[in-house]
Amino acid sequence: MAGNVQELRPKAGGDSEKITINLGYVDLGHIDLLVQDGFYANRTDFIRTAIRNQVERHADAARQSVARRSLDLGLRHFTRADLEAARDSGRPLDIRVLGLASIAADVTPELARAAIASLSVLGALQASAEVKAALADRMR
Questions:
Q1: pLDDT at 10
Q2: Best exposed site among 48, 53, 75, 78 by fewest CB in 10 Å?
Q3: Does residue 97 come out as left (phi exceeding 0), alpha (psi in the -120 to 50 range) or beta?
Q4: pTM, to two decimals
Q5: pLDDT digits 0-9 by tens, 71-98
Q6: Which of 72, 81, 87 shows the shortest CA–CA distance to 103?
Q7: DSSP letter string over 23-74?
Q8: Residue 33, exposed/middle/buried by CB under 10 A (0-12, 13-18, 19+)?
Q9: What is d(CA 34, CA 40) in angstroms, rounded to the nearest whole number?
Q10: Torsion angles phi and psi, residue 23, rounded to 5
C-alpha cells in the first residue's frame, strides 16, 4: 500500500482546504500595505507565503516528528480493495497521515470499522459522513 503515497505540493483551488483566522486590525493593515505596495498579489498570497516560511523554518523538527510518529506524508488514498485486504488479513490498519487521507466513496461504514483500528490525520480527511461517524471513536 505504500505505493499509494504521493507527495503534495501546495496549490490553490481544489487541492486546498479553506481555513478561517482572526487577525488584529494592525496586522491586517500591515498585510494590506504590503499587498498595495506590490510585495504580494493579495492577502491569501501573503498568508500562504508566511505559512510556508514558518514550515520551512521548522523543517528539520517536522521531519524528525514525521519519522518518529511513522506518518505517511502527502496524499494517502484507501480504496475498497485496500480495506477489504486489511480486513481479510485480520490486521486492521493504523492510519497516520500528515496531509490528506481519503477513503473511497464505495467504502461502507462496516468495512471501515472492520479494516481500520485507528486513524490519525494531521491535515484533512475525505470520507463519507457515515464512514467518519463510524470511525469517530478511533480518531486521534
A1: 47
A2: 53
A3: beta
A4: 0.72
A5: 999 999 999 999 999 999 999 999 999 9
A6: 81
A7: --HHHHHHHHHHHHTTSSSSHHHHHHHHHHHHHHHTHHHHHHHHHHHT-EEE
A8: exposed
A9: 6
A10: -125, 150
User: How far apart, in Å, do the first and last CA atoms of the chain sit?
Assistant: 22
Q: Are strands 72-78 and 5-6 parallel, antiparallel or unpaired?
A: antiparallel
Domain coordinates in residue numbering, the chain: 25-57, 61-138
Query: For residues 125 and 77, what is the distance between their CA atoms, to the nearest angstrom?
Result: 10
Cell numbers for 65: 516528528
Q: Is 69 left (phi over 0), alpha (psi -120 to 50) or beta?
A: alpha
List own/partner pairs for 77-81 with CB under 8 A and 24 or more apart: 77/4, 77/101, 77/102, 77/103, 77/104, 78/4, 78/102, 78/103, 78/104, 78/107, 79/104, 79/107, 80/104, 80/106, 80/107, 80/111
Give the length of the chain.
140
